[in-house]
Amino acid sequence: MAFYYPPPGFHFKVEFLDIQAVADDILFQNVSGLEVSLETESIKEGGENRFEHVIPTRSKYNDLILKRGVLKDSGVIKWCRQAIESFEFKPTTVLVQLLNEEHEILIEWRLFHAWPKKWSVAELNAEQSAVLVETIELNYNYFKVNHSEPT
Fold first, then answer.
1. Domain for residue 3, yes or no?
2. How many CB atoms lie within 10 A of CB 16?
3. Is the pLDDT reported for residue 106 higher than 90?
4. Residue 79 pLDDT > 70, yes or no?
5. CA distances from 127 to 71, 124, 134, 135 (A)
6. Residue in 78, 61, 74, 68 with CA at minimum distance from that of residue 113
7. Helix or strand or coil: residue 146?
8. 68 forms bridges with which residues in the sheet?
9. Residue 17 placed within a domain
10. What tens digit of pLDDT does each residue of 11-61 get?
11. Residue 131: phi, psi to the nearest 5?
C-alpha cells in the first residue's frame, strides 16, 4: 500500500463560469469560506427535564471570500461592479480547484448561484511597500465537492 500525503493548499485557481474573464482572473492569493454547517432546532419533550432533543434543520453555507492583488483589467470586477452599482445580478457558478504539481485538479468545489455581495480594496498607505489587495465576497446557495482519484 502506497503512502498518501495530503496535498498542500497553496496551488489552486478560481474560475467563474459565464463571465468574460481575463487570464489573471483565476489567480487569487487567498480563498476562504468553503464551509458548511447544519443549523439545528431544540425540542423539549413534555415530562422529560434531563435533556432536549436537538435535530438538524438545514445546511448553512458561509460566504466565499477571495483576496488578490488589484488588477487593472478584470472581468470579475466588471461583474461585481455591475451588480453593486446597477443592481444587475447575474449569478454564476464558481469553481475553486486545488491543483497538483502537474496542474491537474485534485479537488474541486463547485459553488452554485454565486453573486457578489461585497467588494473592497485594502488601505492605501504611503509608509508601506505592500501589494494593494482587493477582497471579493460572494454569496452562494450551496457547493458540491468532487475528488479526483489519487494516482
1. no
2. 19
3. yes
4. yes
5. 22, 9, 19, 21
6. 61
7. strand
8. 134
9. yes
10. 999 999 988 877 788 889 999 999 999 999 999 988 888 889 999 999 999
11. -70, 140
* Average pLDDT value for the chain: 91
Using the structure block, give the residue that is written with the C-alpha cell 464558481.
94
Of all residues in the chain, the percent with pLDDT exceeding 70 is 97
CA dist., res. 23 & res. 106, Å (int): 21
Whether 6 maps to a domain, the answer reads no
130, HSE (Cβ side, Cα atoms, 13 Å): 12
Question: Residues near 69 by Cβ (< 8 Å), separated by ≥ 6?
Answer: 29, 131, 132, 133, 134
96-62-90 Cα angle (round to 5):
65
User: Does residue 2 lie in a domain region?
Assistant: no
Q: Which domain holds residue 143?
A: 12-147
Task: Tell me what pLDDT residue 21 has.
Answer: 77
The pLDDT, as a whole number, for residue 151 is 52
In this structure, which amino acid lies at residue 93? T
| pLDDT (average), residues 81-106 | 93
Alpha helices in the chain (DSSP H): 75-86
Q: 95: which 3 cell numbers?
A: 469553481
pLDDT of residue 24: 81
Residue 69 belongs to domain with CATH number: 2.30.110.20
**Domains identified in the chain, total number:** 1
